[in-house]
């Protein structure tokens, strides 16, 4: 397991690309000044990984924040995702170009299939493989793919997904899925690490926060990283963006990590990848 050292530390993807293991998520950040500021504050704080999606309707603002940050493009790791209504081969090729246009970027570091839309995600993946083969994206991956979706995709794919971005928190660890991804060199990544705020009411986290003299958010984000899981906490508030990143001066003990792992109960706060209708 690679050591977790600092905000710009990376995990190496299966194609050799270095992916910063800590980043800013911008889901629910409003396009315009709100998301521009969030991206700028994050980059000023030292973040180098920004995660958006076409469905977030804020790619323009994300691109503007990147430009205003003054940090060279090649030092940043920018991610977006193809939405469900844009899936299919030709549609995905168009969707990628549209995302680049909104972001005003020449390429993305990572492009993901947002959800496993039945009957479409294999064609969508073929489009991602084409973009990747052309050198127009550094890495391609998926989001919300369970093991059977991944097995189905791997049966026809030329390229193994570099990343699988999943709902991940102490109530939804899915260790078998993590193990499957590790075995296939697919980097696991967390969304909704704070359980939509429910984490702040949990006694286990209150006691760990006290023990380590850290906030509950910092405890859960540190746990993600120590599990080898990339994490992208979302916020548009400056103090929270700065606070979320203050997790590199302590380490959870093995005992505490295992205690958090044991909280798993298969509980989702977001949609079920086997049963969604959007």
Automatic annotation (TrEMBL):
InterPro entries: AKR, AKR5G, Aldo/ket_reductase_CS, NAD(P)_OxRdtase_dom_sf, NADP_OxRdtase_dom. This is Aldo/keto reductase. The keyword Cell membrane does not apply. PANTHER family: 2,5-DIKETO-D-GLUCONIC ACID REDUCTASE (PTHR43827), NADP-DEPENDENT OXIDOREDUCTASE DOMAIN-CONTAINING PROTEIN (PTHR43827:SF3). PROSITE patterns: ALDOKETO_REDUCTASE_1, ALDOKETO_REDUCTASE_2, ALDOKETO_REDUCTASE_3. The keyword Lyase does not apply. Keywords: NADP, Oxidoreductase. Residues 29-263 form the NADP-dependent oxidoreductase domain. Belongs to the aldo/keto reductase family.
């Amino acid at each position: 397991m690679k050591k977790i050292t600092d905000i710009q530390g990376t995990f190496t993807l299966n194609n050799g690309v270095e992916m910063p293991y800590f980043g800013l998520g911008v889901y629910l950040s409003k396009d315009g000044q709100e998301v521009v500021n969030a991206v700028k504050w994050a980059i000023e704080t030292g973040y180098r990984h920004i995660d958006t999606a076409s469905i977030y309707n804020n790619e323009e603002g994300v691109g503007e924040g990147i430009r205003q940050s003054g940090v060279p493009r090649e030092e940043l790791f920018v991610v977006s995702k193809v939405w469900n209504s844009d899936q299919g081969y030709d549609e995905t090729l168009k969707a990628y170009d549209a995302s680049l246009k909104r972001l005003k970027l020449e390429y993305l570091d990572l492009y993901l299939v947002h959800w496993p839309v039945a009957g479409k995600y294999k064609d969508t993946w073929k489009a991602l493989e084409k973009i990747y083969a052309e050198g127009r994206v550094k890495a391609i991956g998926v989001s919300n793919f369970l093991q059977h979706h991944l097995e189905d995709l791997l049966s026809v794919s030329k390229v193994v997904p570099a990343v699988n971005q999943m709902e991940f928190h102490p109530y939804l660890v899915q260790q078998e899925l993590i193990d499957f991804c590790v075995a296939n060199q697919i980097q696991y990544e967390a969304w909704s690490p704070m359980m939509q705020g429910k984490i702040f009411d949990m006694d286990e986290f209150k006691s760990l926060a006290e023990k380590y003299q850290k906030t509950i958010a910092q405890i859960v984000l540190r746990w993600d990283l120590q599990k080898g899981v990339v994490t992208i906490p979302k916020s548009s508030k400056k103090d929270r963006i700065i606070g979320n990143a203050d997790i590199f001066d302590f380490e959870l003990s093995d005992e505490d990590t295992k205690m958090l792992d044991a909280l798993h109960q298969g509980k989702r706060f977001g949609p079920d990848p086997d049963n969604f209708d959007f």
